[in-house]
Input
Amino acid sequence: MKQIKCGKGVFRFSVGPWNMHPGADPFGPPVRTELGFLEKIRLFKKLGFGAIQFHDDDVCPAGLNPAATRKATREMKKLLRDHGLEPEFVAPRLWEDPRTIDGGWTSNDPKCRRYALERSLRSIDIANELGTKRIVLWPAREGTYIREAKDPLLSCKRYLEYLNALLAYDKGIRILGEMKPNEPTDAAYLPTPGHFLGMGAQTSDPKRVGVLIESAHSLLLGIDASDDMAYSLAAGKLWGVHLNDQDGLKFDEDKSFGAVNIRRAFNQVWVLARGGFGRKGEWVGLDVKAMRTQKQETAHKHLANSLAFFGYLAEIVDRVNEKTVQKLRDERDYEELEAYIVRLLLGRKG
Output
């Protein structure tokens, strides 16, 4: 398993099975063969990952009864153990079911809200059986395409009721909100980590509500991801990250980490290192996609490259002279500070 120590941080890496995909998009069919799960985890292990991120239906089909769910989950746990991998989290994949076309816990339909809750509670059961207490919530359709479609006050109330129901179901879980401002909905409720932590503070147990920051989701807000990470680290609430990159305010591109803006990626590694990320068991997760044009035999390079770029940046972070940085801050010589950082990134002496 790949592990990097940098500053105060200890970094181990996780990946989800969706990171290896056949290349279909809204405008075209698959262009590569879908790998089986066993092939994927063998590849992930070979690349140096130590943990797997799961949606509930990555573990077993969503329609299985409780007994069949337990059986399938135990088989998955054994498969992970046999390959020396851990489960990082389980996330209920609510957004692909026809019953959640108008959202899950904020749906106008009480039957759909009940389905979303029941499936989420089942995800907690799966997480417990796998051996993780982390539940990630990506509220993909918890918003609207037109603002009049839902009562926003009632939606906030339903949001809180849903979180409290999860917290009451299992006193050991930790909820990680993975916030995103748009896509697939036009505008999401609680679009930022700050919104979610504000809602978390109103729950029955705020100590068990934190966030997972995804680089691209911050960028889609026009915010530097390192600032979102710093805010959450300062609050003791950064319990996961999804690193990737993004070429401007477009759709969620999930490019290889550091492939678009190396300085922006550097600042994410630097803040994680300064904040001691990973020392309490947190994982550095990737959420990246191969280019659609990539051939089958090299469709894993986005993963290998992201890991390599993180490692290169960690080496640069270790070369940062904090006294020099502080001196330039004290002198308010930000032009020279910028030049110092750029020289480091270009491989020149600071």
